[in-house]
Design brief:
alpha+beta, two-stranded antiparallel sheet
Length: 77
């Protein structure tokens, strides 16, 4: 095997070992995550939907006032 290929193979193997050590360290660190308590966890989920504020006609440009966002307690179909 030529010397350049052997050096490249050793360098790639060293990088692979280094990345494996880093991955193990990240994996251990993420297992100690603290749970986040949300104040609205007990309530039912809410869904934001875009609704038409008035009857819309085809071909007419829309403005932000034509499409407000409403919050629903049920999942939209």
């Amino acid at each position: 095997m030529p010397k350049a290929i052997r050096i490249t193979a050793v360098l790639l193997l060293a990088i692979a070992v280094l990345l494996a050590v880093v991955a193990i360290g990240i994996g251990r660190r993420s297992s100690h995550a603290t749970p986040v308590a949300s104040p609205g966890a007990a309530s039912a989920p809410r869904y934001d939907v875009v609704v038409a504020a008035r009857a819309l006609t085809a071909g007419m440009p829309l403005s932000a006032n034509d499409l407000p966002v409403a919050t629903l307690a049920e999942r939209p179909a």
